[in-house]
Every structure is written in C-alpha cells, then in structure tokens.
Amino acid sequence: MREIVLQTKKLTKSYGRSTALDHADMTVFKGDIYGLIGRNGAGKTTMMKLVSGLTEPTNGEYSLFGKTGMAAENEKRRIGCLIENPAFFGNMTAYQNLRYYCYQKGIADRKQIDEVLELVKLSDARNKKFKTFSLGMKQRLGIAFAVLDNPDIVILDEPINGLDPIGISELRETFRRLSRERGMTLIISSHILSELYAVANRFMFIENGKVLKEVSKSELDLECSRCIALGTDDTAKASTILERQLGITDYKVIDSHEIRIYDENARPNIVNRTLVQNDVDVMKIHESGVSLEDYFKKLVGEVKS
Amino acid sequence: MINLMKADLYRIVKTKGFIIFWLVSFLVSMLSIAYHEPGGIMLGGDFDLNGAQKMDIKQAAMNLVYYFLLIMPVFGTITAEFTEHTIKNTITSAVSKGKFYFAKTVFALVYSLGCFLGANYLFYFVNRAVNGSKYSSTLGEYSKVLFGQFPVFVAIVSAFVFLAFFFKKGAAFNSIVIITPLVYSLFISIFCEIESAQKITEKLVEFEVSTMIGKLALGCSQSYRTDCYIISAAITVISCVLGYLIWKKREV
C-alpha cells in the first residue's frame, strides 16, 4: 500500500461570509506529482496556504506524514513551498537570498545553494540582485528556494506563470527529475490544464472552494479518451455479449446502467445490432471523448446544475 | 528561532538602514567631538543643558536622536519582511507564526539596543581619546547614565515592534513612528492653552520622551526615575502582549 504523505479531511476556510475552501478532502501519496486544477479564485492557493501553515483552517484537519495537530506542525520542516508570487529581498542577490534562507533553515552546507541554482538554471545569475530578475527568473528562484533543503513535499503555486515555452518545458523536466531522482512529492497548482496533464500523475479538480473530483492520470485518460458510451439495464449480459460475440475486451462498466467501450475497432451500429439481437435493451449508444478542457467544463457544469 | 536571528543578522548588515544608522550616529558624534558641544535633536524637552556636567553626559541627554535612528533597525528587521512579502517564505518553511513573532521581537530589541549602546560607547571612547578627561567622564559614570536611559529605549523599541506588526506596511509604520513625538508635543501645546488642564500639561511635559531621556542623563529625583521606569515597563509589556495577540489573529 502506498504511503500517504498529506491528507486533508473536510478542510474548510472562511473569510467572514465567504467560504474560500469548503470541506475539501485531498489525499497525496509519496512520490506523487499531484496537480491541483481550478480556475482563478477556485481555492487552490487557499488549500496550499492551509497545508503550509500560512493560514489556519476554520474547520476540518489535515495530516502530514500521518501526524495531526501540533505533531503535524513539526513535520512542516519537511515541506518546501512557493505560494503565490515568488518573494525575495530585492537588494540582495540570488545567492544571498538563498543563503539567508540557509541560515533560517539551519543548512550548513552552502554547496546546496549552487546545486539548486544549477537545477533551475540560474547559476549565471547567482550574483545578480533579485530586483533585476525577469518574472521567469523570479519563478525559478522561487522553485530553487522551495527545494533548497531537499524537502519530502514541494508545494508550488502556479509555478509556470510568466515562463516562456522553453522555460515551461525545462521546468517540466525539472519536476520529473525532482520526483524521480530525489523522490520528492510535488503538489503543483495551475489553471493551465495541458501543462499539468503533461507532468502530474494525480489530479484534483476544484471550483468555488469545492473539490469536484480527485483522479489518477489513468482514470482521467479513461474518462477523456474516445469511447462508445452504451446505456443498458443489463450491463452483465451486455458485457458477456461484447466479449463472446464481438471479441471486445477493452471496456469498462461505469455503473449499473453504463458501459464504456474503448476498443478502437468497435463500431456503434454493430454493437447496437448485436445487443438487440440478443434481447439486450439499448437505451443509448453514442461515440464519446472529450478534451481536458471540456472534461473540466463538464465537471464544473455538473456542480452548478 | 536562533537560526532566524542568525539569518536576520546576515541580512541586516546589507541593508541601507544599517549604513544610514552608523553614518548619522558617526556624524553627530564627530561634530560634537570636534566642536566640544553636545549635538542631536531636541523637541523642547524640559531640562537644562547648561549644568556642570561634562560634554559626554550632555551628549547622552540629547539621545533623542536615537528615537529616530532606531526606526531603521526595526524597519529592516520586521517591516521589510511584509513589504517584500518574504514572510510567507519564513512561515511556510522555518518557523510558526508565534515563533516568528518572538524571534523578530527579540532580535529587533537586541539588535536595536546593541546599536544604541554601540554608537554611544563609540562616541565615548573617541571623545575620550580626542578631547581627554576635560570633556569626558569616567566609563563608570557614563555607563550609569546610559543604562539609566536604557529602560526608556527598551520601551521605545518595543512600541516600534508592536507598530511594525500592527501596520505591516513600511510607509505606514514610518509615518506613525516619526510623527508620534511631534503629535505628543502638539497635544502639550494645546493643553497649555487650557487653564483647567495645567496639572495634566505638567505631567505630559514631564514624561515627554526627550524630557525623560534628558533628565535621566543629567540627573533627577529618585521618584521621577522610578516613574519613568514604571511607564517604560508598562509600555514594554503592553506592546509585546498586545502585539502578539493581534499578530496571532492576523492573516499573513
């Protein structure tokens, strides 16, 4: 069984009458690259602020490495964060800023500063003042800060904001390396679905402070990929016919009324005819398949309706 | 918490405030040493600088200048974190909000008061070396005067720390702390015009910050000294407790 490193239970944050996060449940396993997807103001940053200790929950709780309450507070040293915009002292260089945080975190080995600067490709700018940095450089320095002391969990809020396409691609590779080589668990938020999809292995969709869905990449692929959606009262009998008479094995029984066929060779008219000939009532049959954007829109739409 | 203070010490020496503090202290001290006259800032404090005290003691009576200079260490230590938004880096990775408050308060107090003592002793030793005993007292006498003023400066820095956490923004903090002694003097002027408020006016003048600093240096009654220390202790405790309570409730 995979180790849970971060779990929230009914985590709620209200500011006066407005609720920024509403009974949010989230489970992050060790080694995950966890994508937090939502529109601006959906509650992604609030979720990150809560688990990083920047703000206190109104209700609910969270556990870090299986510990809750004060014990979880002590585990926060194992988290590296970049929340909202990267912030550093403008009159200090990249190196000096990271050295300042080395003192704060009690990191004696100064080599780590050069290592993380190299990791985010800022070695050449190590002696440049932060106030002279471009937005992309600031983001990268923020990521360097987040991974400075090799934390077990890295929380990055909109890390690709302000980066050019090459920067985004390099950062994507950096995330994979951090996960693969250093065994870090990454929680990354973004409203750019395609970018998160390219790097994450688990996703949480959030809207208006409510968690819409938590899915793995394979589940998401399954839900978004092209398929034939088949509506019937007798999914058991329909499954048998699909396998024995049509030789279709790549399908999934969604619930007691729906089967999704992913076999690329399956044709709706043949499936329909075969099932009807075998006395299986077909309520609906149509080709399906949505883009990530459409999938997200559909989720949001379901909640609103 | 110690790590946080080490980090602050590393950073603070790189700030402009650090350079300005020492530059202004140095200039004020050097002018006094060169002209054999105490120099600094006065806000119409009710004390006499024409007594028989030596020049260094009179200079200590003008220590109100450190009210304004000590704004810089507190600004650099606390409000800079809010202005640059770096506070979220610290709270998410190094310490909790509560520990942040304590670490910053202790560091601001130790650092500011260290600067106050350091600058004054620097003046003392240079003055002693340049002008000799004609213009300088013994180290013991001078230390007695400085440490006699010390509780007032502890209260001043504590109040600054409270205001830094309260206002968070550098501009608001600076405006308030700079204007406060002037507004206090304005109140005294207004009360002076009210005949029925003469007693209150006298008390206000007596415990005006520059008057306290001056009288504690040049000599005063034991009861006045005690009153000054009680007021200073009250300001220190109220500032620290109130600051913590407000800070704990604030969103970062």
From TrEMBL, chain A:
The keyword Nucleotide-binding applies. Residues 6-233 form the ABC transporter domain. It comes from the Bacteria. One of its GO terms (molecular function) is ATP binding. InterPro entries: AAA+_ATPase, ABC_transporter-like_ATP-bd, P-loop_NTPase. It holds the Pfam family ABC_tran. Keywords: ATP-binding, Nucleotide-binding, Transport. SMART domains: AAA (SM00382). Belongs to the ABC transporter superfamily. This is ABC-2 type transport system ATP-binding protein.
TrEMBL record, chain B:
The keyword Membrane applies. The chain crosses the membrane at residues 12-35, 64-80, 101-126, 146-166, 173-191, 229-247. It comes from the Bacteria. The keyword Zinc-finger does not apply. Keywords: Membrane, Transmembrane, Transmembrane helix. This is ABC-2 family transporter protein. It comes from Ruminococcus albus.
